[in-house]
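Suppose you are handed only these lines of text.
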Amino acid sequence: MPTIKLSSGRTFPCETGTSILDAASQAGIALPYSCRTGRCSTCKARVVDGISRALREETGLSEQERAAGWILGCVRTAQSDLVLEAQEVVGVDLAAPRIWPCRVHGLERLAHDVLRVILRLAPNADFRFRPGQYVDILAPSGIRRSYSLANCDFAENLLELHIREVPDGAMSEYWFRRAKVNDLLRLHGPLGTFFLRETAGADVYFLATGTGIAPIRSMLGSMAQLPAAERARSVTVLWGGRHLPDLYLQATELPACDRFVPVLSRAEASWTGARGHVQDVLLASGAELRGAVVYACGSDAMIHGARTALCGAGVRPDRFYSDAFVSSGLN
Ligand SMILES: Cc1cc2nc3c(=O)[nH]c(=O)nc-3n(C[C@H](O)[C@H](O)[C@H](O)COP(=O)(O)OP(=O)(O)OC[C@H]3O[C@@H](n4cnc5c(N)ncnc54)[C@H](O)[C@@H]3O)c2cc1C
Ligand code: FES
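From them, the structure of the protein bound to FE2/S2 (inorganic) cluster can be written out as follows.
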């Protein structure tokens, strides 16, 4: 069986046909990941030596990246021993994902196209997650879709999701037309490596578009519970939508936030707040970004734009964390 060696020197076996991400996880090694479908590029790694094979299309890579030897570990397997230049998630105890039965406990419209879904797990469920992580919901029809957790603790065995309606979306059709309280579902989780890192004393910027505010609200909730010595120096949230009703939470629902900046890209003439894209508004504010920590969540376009713009303005690439809400269907 091929062996994979990482930049850190750690090695693990990878059976041909198993993704590099899964093989690492089976060996107790956590690599960064989000979508697991080759779309978001969070699991990007570079092949230094050896032969690998794509299990699915790597849509998250540009032609230049492919030519330079970059691969996406969630949809690549080893054909020979490999040496990989890859980041690892170290010093964090991540709960192993598993399947949990759950019921719909509550459904509430937050905006014309956003639903708050509360899920209830069994009273004895020992579900543990890190604020920022997501779960896959497995509907009885066999559809599986990813949704971030919007609450930060597991009080009363309840989990909160914020779900945006995607036109003609298979799972959207269930949530917005057929879902009712007490429906039985299953979830797989916790998943993903988008969670709070060490932020003591740092200026922290959260950038969201649409329902990308969900995991950020969860992270803010956990920041509010930190002892004073572990708190960030400042916490700024920039939340973007097209029109004001798209920003469906009030500032008071975002704990630990020192500065909340709503940003509208298609605002009515009467809007006196920030206009455009969240990353441009942050840049235009003149904030000192060297030493800042950025968490960005929402559309792929925002995340790509924000990474390029903010890292160009001094944010260290290893302090730019993101979760792209790319399509999670496997079709
Ligand atoms: C890690 C992760 C976390 C996510 N968290 C959330 C969340 O908290 N809240 C939330 O509302 N959504 C979230 N999503 C997106 C969600 O998983 C679904 O992809 C989305 O809700 C569409 O599912 P659907 O079955 O309704 O549409 P589908 O039937 O899957 O798609 C219908 C059509 O829309 C396109 N499409 C689907 N999703 C997108 C998209 N995001 N951008 C552009 N085109 C798309 C498809 O390609 C297809 O053509 C997350 C995705 C990922 C990968
Ligand atoms: S591309 Fe691999 S986790 Fe998204």
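What can we learn from it? Residues 203-324 form a domain with the Rossmann fold fold (CATH 3.40.50.80). The two ends are 30 Å apart (CA to CA).
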